[in-house]
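ARCHIVE CARD
CATEGORY: sequence design from structure
SOURCE FIELD: tokenized fold
FIELD CONTENT:
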């Protein structure tokens, strides 16, 4: 009799597991968007504030690498917004090109150049910028109640390299940038050459920029060292030295974090720096 009860109980438990629905984050929506220029398809994930209202214009936070960044950021901002410690924002995550694998898509879309020795597809940051600044912005602004003067970009690694490129090549695209663990080493530190070019022809840079990197992000291999901590500091100091009146910039180091673990802290600290109600 006891054995039969155990069998029945196990059967009920198994049914409960089988019938359980996958977790879904509240107030989220998704949309497959076609790049009108390239005809590539990307999936968008949208997280609205808990008390979203069409009578309010919300800042929008745009994320690349949405497979990873969207659940992290959309989850992290819920409590600060619910407790009114942070302004309400709409979070928009942008996925990879759905026709190719994730790594191929991000390497192609996020890189501004193609190094001479590079054999993989790269260097289409301008095409990707066109997609974001036209198709994505138009869809989000026409579908939701947004503040077009308060667009924020959050990127990590190669995504933060793309953000750095947009900051210096198309500075009016976003008002704010959270650049987490930026891959500034790409193409012999191309981004620093671009920074010098920008400074030669511009006397101001209107943006708020939060640079962040893990304290352990020094990558060593056979014959090379990638010191991302030093690179982040170098970009911060270069931009700071220009004394742009309209630039607000901060450089932060996440203690005991490496390249794989720094992003959650970098992203929420950066967004709180931008939108925290006690700032």
């Amino acid at each position: 009799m006891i054995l039969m009860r155990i069998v029945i109980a196990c059967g009920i438990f198994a049914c409960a597991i089988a019938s359980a629905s996958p977790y879904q984050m509240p107030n989220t929506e998704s949309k497959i968007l076609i790049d009108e220029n390239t005809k590539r398809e990307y999936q968008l994930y949208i997280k609205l504030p808990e008390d979203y209202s069409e009578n309010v214009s919300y800042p929008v936070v745009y994320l690349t690498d949405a497979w990873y960044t969207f659940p992290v950021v959309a989850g992290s901002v819920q409590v600060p917004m619910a407790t009114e410690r942070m302004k309400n924002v709409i979070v928009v995550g942008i996925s990879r090109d759905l026709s190719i694998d994730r790594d191929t898509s991000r390497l192609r879309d996020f890189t501004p150049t193609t190094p001479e020795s590079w054999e993989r597809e790269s260097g289409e940051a301008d095409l990707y910028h066109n997609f974001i600044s036209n198709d994505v912005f138009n869809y989000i602004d026409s579908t939701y109640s947004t503040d077009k003067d308060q667009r924020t970009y959050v990127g990590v690694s190669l995504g933060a390299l793309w953000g750095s490129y947009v900051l210096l090549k198309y500075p009016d695209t976003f008002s704010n940038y959270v650049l987490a663990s930026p891959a500034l080493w790409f193409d012999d530190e191309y981004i620093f050459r671009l920074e010098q070019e920008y400074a030669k022809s511009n006397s101001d840079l209107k943006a708020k920029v939060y640079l962040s990197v893990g304290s352990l992000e020094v990558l060593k291999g056979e014959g090379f060292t990638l010191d991302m901590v030093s690179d982040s500091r170098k970009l911060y100091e270069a931009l700071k030295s220009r004394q742009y009146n309209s630039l607000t910039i901060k450089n932060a180091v996440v203690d005991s974090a490496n390249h794989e673990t720094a992003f959650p802290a970098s992203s929420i600290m950066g967004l709180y720096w931008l939108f925290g109600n006690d700032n």
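CARD ANNOTATION: Residues 2-275 form a domain with the Rossmann fold fold (CATH 3.40.50.1820). The mean pLDDT is 91.
SHELF: design records, drawer C
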